[in-house]
Design goal:
Elements (H helix, E strand, L loop, with lengths): L2 H25 L1 H15 L4 H37 L3 H17 L10 H23 L11 H26 L25 H4 L1 H12 L1 H6 L12 H16 L2 H30 L5 H29 L1 H20 L5 E2 L2 E2 L6 H29 L7 H13 L4 H13 L8 H13 L10
Antiparallel strand pairs: 1-2
Helix pairs in contact: 1-5, 1-6, 1-8, 2-3, 2-11, 3-5, 3-10, 3-11, 3-15, 3-16, 4-5, 4-8, 5-15, 6-12, 6-14, 11-14, 11-15, 11-17, 12-13, 12-14, 13-14, 13-17
């Protein structure tokens, strides 16, 4: 298999799995879940603001649990994969779990009778997709050298975001019904006779993402091979020994240690923006699923463009300056979001019917998508410079651990802040603190890494 074809196979995995995040985590299922939960709690007598906060708390609890499971399992599974010399079976297994979990969200009851069950289904999908990506990321060092890996990383993310945009457009054009029962843009009845009153078009986002992944992951499994890793019998004892040695080794590598700690906080903050962006739009700005979906299209297009540009910039100046740039911009975005509501902007009351909050949040969405794509791409590139040859899977398992060790922290802090303030808007304020902590630790990271 040619190296170019292998790289394109790796790109196709991003394309295949991106709808799990675009359709379910951010723009369709998450805000739909929040709206159903809000109506369910409001029907029990809670005031609207308290019902909003309760819905956000439930969602953040599910994300917290998923993050803990990912954090605990990623390095162990990475060590087992390295001990056996096989990654592909694990990628296949976790991709299958993501597909099953996504398909199960079809059974979401619009009245809210099975909120917990559907949250569990989403958590299974989320864990499967994240773990599959951790193993796929471990293949990145085999695809290029330090001079080209940034561009490969950025192009892969850009290609994935294009797939996410296309999947979102298809779902909005053909399946999701507006309040009048018609689809957006084309203004006709949803396909397959989906009943808008039962939100069947919206619920179909999960099965659609599952089918999308099933079809478009085929090039990846056909074109990407295991590379230089020998095929050995897996050993849990040997894997745990290797993992313990790797953890101790991190303590003796100051650059890698600081990078893992830094990324632990700023990636958690970014995931918080991704996870609660659509929910914020629904609960604070009262956007409909169609409006949130349109917002998602704009944000995902921005993410694709800037991921590609960020990869080129990474090849030219290195990943560390790119990470600095994106974090500062994202912090500014957070400040704007916290200071904005449907009727006020930093305490100043807006005229009735003002579109300023809607327009500003659309711009914030572009920046979250674009800078988030660049930040993820540059972080993967900088991790490659810290990954020891022959130990890529366990190293990226530790990278996955750092990204998930505090994955519960953003949702937990948002839960606490939301509960204390009884406001979904002020509840996202801890994200700024996480970005600041990430910047502090990033200062001591060697821009060239320490693997060599």
């Amino acid at each position: 298999m040619s190296q170019r074809k292998t790289i394109w196979g790796w790109y196709w995995f991003d394309w295949a799995c991106q709808p799990f995040f675009t359709l379910l985590l951010t723009f369709i299922f998450a805000p739909f879940f929040a709206q159903v939960a809000t109506e369910y709690y409001a029907s029990g007598g809670l005031p609207e603001q308290s019902a909003d906060a309760r819905a956000q708390t439930l969602w953040s609890t599910g994300i917290t649990i998923a993050g803990l499971i990912i954090a605990c399992s990623a390095p162990v599974l990475g060590a087992i994969a390295d001990s056996a010399g096989r990654r592909m079976p694990w990628i296949f297994l976790f991709t299958a779990a993501a597909i099953i979990g996504a398909a199960a969200t079809w059974f979401m009851d619009p009245t809210g009778s099975n909120l917990v069950t559907m949250l569990v289904a989403f958590v299974i999908c989320y864990i499967g997709a994240e773990l599959a990506f951790i193993f796929a990321n471990a293949q990145l060092p085999d695809l290029g050298d330090d001079d080209s890996v940034g561009g490969i990383s950025g192009s892969g993310l850009a290609f994935g975001y294009i797939g996410g945009v296309l999947s979102l457009v298809i779902v909005l054009l053909l399946f999701v019904g507006q309040d009048n029962g018609k689809t957006i843009f084309l203004n006709f009845d949803p396909l397959f006779g989906f009943d808008p009153s039962e939100k069947e078009g919206t619920r179909f986002a999960g099965p659609f993402a599952a089918l999308w992944c099933l079809v478009f992951s085929i090039p990846y499994f056909l074109w990407v091979r295991e590379g230089h890793l020998p095929n050995r019998r897996p050993s849990l004892g040997g894997a745990m020994t290797t993992l313990w040695q790797a953890i101790k080794g991190v303590l003796n590598r100051p650059s890698q240690c600081k990078f893992l700690i830094s990324s632990m906080f700023y990636r958690d903050a970014l995931n918080g923006l991704y996870t609660f962006g659509g929910i914020y739009a629904g609960l604070v700005l009262d956007w409909s699923i169609v409006q949130i979906g349109t917002f998602g299209i704009v944000a995902a297009i921005s993410a694709g463009v800037f991921s590609w540009l960020g990869g080129k910039l990474d090849n030219r100046i290195g990943p560390k300056p790119v990470i600095y740039l994106t974090i500062f911009i994202l912090m500014g975005v957070c400040v704007v979001i916290i200071g904005m509501s449907k009727t006020h902007f930093f305490g100043v009351e807006l005229v009735a019917g003002s579109t300023l909050p809607d327009n500003l949040f659309m711009l914030c969405g572009c920046l979250i998508g674009g800078m988030g794509g660049m930040l993820q791409s540059a972080s993967r590139s900088l991790m490659v410079r810290h990954a020891m040859p022959g130990k890529e899977t366990i190293e990226f398992g530790l990278y996955g651990l750092s990204g998930r060790a505090t994955a519960f922290l953003a949702p937990l802090l948002i839960t606490i802040a939301t509960t204390i303030t009884d406001s979904a808007r002020l509840g996202v304020s801890p994200i700024v603190i996480l970005f600041v902590v990430g910047l502090v630790f990033l200062i001591g990271v060697n821009a060239r890494g320490d693997a060599r």
